[in-house]
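Quick illustration, no need to memorize.
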Amino acid sequence: MDYPIWDLAMGGGLLMAIVAIPHVIVAHFAVGGGLLIAVTETLAVRRDDPALRELARRSSLVLILVSTVFGAISGVGIWVVAGLISPGAISALIHTYVWGWALEWVFFVLEIVAALVYYATWDKISKGAHLLVGWLYFVGAYMSLVVINGIITFMLTPGRWLETHAFWDGFFNPTYIPSTLLRTGIAILMATVFMVFAALKTPEDRRASVLRYLGWWLAGGVIVSYAGYRWWEAVLPETVLALFRGAAPSLASLAATRHFVLWALAVTLVVGVLILILMPKLTRAATAVVLALAAFAFFGGYERLREGTRKPFLIHSHLFSNGLLVSDIETINAEGVASWSGWVARGDADPVSFGRRIFKTECSSCHTLDGYQGIRGVMPSFAEVLAVAADDPPGSGERVFQAECAACHADLSFAEMREVLPSPDEINGDPEMIYDLNVGMVSATIAGLRAMGADYAAADRDRMINTAAMDYPYMPPFVGTEKEADMLGQYLATLIPQKGGE
């Protein structure tokens, strides 16, 4: 928590998604494209099929332009953005997996060199040698996926690493094999939807057969992806599943994302079978775009789900999203966050200014002021409290309660909340009282988050922590002294809307 703070108005998480999702789509195309192009050229040589060989040639150009150019640049972008918004996590991953990253770079260099040689040597070397280069490219690309997947899955399910801190215990974690299967299917999907555009230039007498060939690859990719996803979900710990599964998931947005992921995959299969296998004459640039968007939606949705299921951690049960280590909670609570972070200690001693620096240090990794997950928008307002208390027309108050209050007041029902609130006439007669009540609710929430830190500190650090048992299962605890908690509350109080929007 003592790294410099990048104060980004739009929110670091949103920027990371904007950079990362296009990159992983292209990166998986690079992997799957290596397989499909190598297989396609191999079949073309064996069958003496010029149409398939031309598909491989055109697709290799797309691979060079999209993968090695955009993919490489956006990959650097991920490191830059991640290093700025989550320096603690990047430091932990580098220190834990430095040799893993080194190995991945070896495979990445092989991938890039083979891709350039492969495209540059069409009809310039023997077909056998050219095929060898193509298969070397696929090996390099797929092994890059194999290595990176071990590090990515470790962040969600570190497994025995929490106890041993051993490289291989973290790498071969509980979700590693299911996720590898899932990403293999996704790679095939991404390659197929990209290669459909190259297939549209096939001569008309062979276009239908080439599209059907890609259609079967797409169907296989969907099946492998679905099997991998179901397996991945099946091995997730209950504490993680509670975030997005069950009758009352902790994060309704993640539950909606899960449904979106499965429906997007179903749409991909239906559209792909329809336009590629059953009626290839329907395949045009527009329908190919629809197919690609459905596949991208599935993959992007899954990445959103996978990232969300780590809440409130970057490395589950070890490092929180704000850079706080579970092992440091007791020390910071005793000594104060100001003694731990120079970025809090430096500056004006005014309580509101001090609280603002605490907010930036402990909260800004997830919350902006007014942008993505804006904290000002979740502050209880006069109008919301009045709407809940009045419930006029009947049912409107409960809707406001569910939308604006339930996330922080899971221990109260709508009826119980109305019982503790003043009457509408009392609220209108004394708006200042409601402001004080809202300040009290904010302070109580901070106190609850601080108390939650004791539960984390007391948890068994050799096992994944059951966050479902926490009062706020998707938020890091507040760490610091009671005085610092009070200063954070004073700062947040300045964000609470008053009557008339004052």
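The CA atoms of residues 33 and 191 lie 5 Å apart.
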